[in-house]
Amino acid sequence: MAARRRVGLVYAAIAVALLAAVASIVTVFFGAPSPRADPANAEQVALGKQVYAQHCASCHGAQLEGQPGWRDKLPSGRMPAPPHDASGHTWHHPDEVLFGITKYGVVPGRYAPPGYQSDMPGFAGALSDDEIWAVVAFIKASWPGEIRKAQADLDRRHAARR
After folding, report:
1. pLDDT higher for 56 or 18?
2. In sequence order, what are the beta bridge partners of 112?
3. Triad 111, 113, 115: Cα angle to 5°
4. Count of alpha carbons within 13 Å of 162, Cβ hemisphere only?
5. For residue 78, what is the DSSP state?
6. Which residues contact 119 (CB under 8 A, 6 or more apart)?
7. Helix runs in the chain, H state only
8. Phi, psi of 83, rounded to the nearest 5 degrees
């Protein structure tokens, strides 16, 4: 029984080593995947700025400042639109979550606690995925370097868990 277990462990180790080798080769030949929301991509950021102005600024502010009192519930029980600049909590979320909230709205149980109510609409019918990623890139481009780095680290950790 112990011999079978050792053989199984050897096979598992070989499989892991092969997968790591393939991943390394793919990265060397094809490069690391580009981020879908790249704040260093001037073209993407410019598109994001335009889309943000048209679809997001009315609630989140032309300067990404959010609505006044964004931490306090409205009389309706819902929360005001938060800022997307460095003063808000947008940078506390990985890109995938920012994309999902923009595309589908604040879905309780997925992007918010169960029962949470929000005025944030989903833009799946109004914006393409590329436009949504561009908005995320535009928002990220507004953050200072240390916040951008912290969010990028969070995003990498989130991606590694998937």
Report:
1. 56
2. 108
3. 115
4. 9
5. P
6. 59, 78, 81
7. 2-30, 42-55, 57-60, 95-104, 129-141, 145-161
8. -75, 155
Q: Which amino acid is at 138?
A: F
* Structure tokens, 50: 């335009």
- Helices 129-141 and 95-104 cross at an angle (nearest 10°) of 130
**SS3 at position 139:** helix
Sign of CA dihedral 74, 79, 85, 86: positive
Distance CA 35, CA 66 (A): 26
The one-letter code for the residue type at 58 is: S
Residue with tokens 């690391």: 32
* b/e 107-119 (16+ beta carbons within 10 angstroms → b): eeeebbeeeeeee
Q: What is the pLDDT of residues 113-159, one digit of tens each?
A: 998 888 999 999 999 999 999 999 999 999 999 999 999 999 999 98
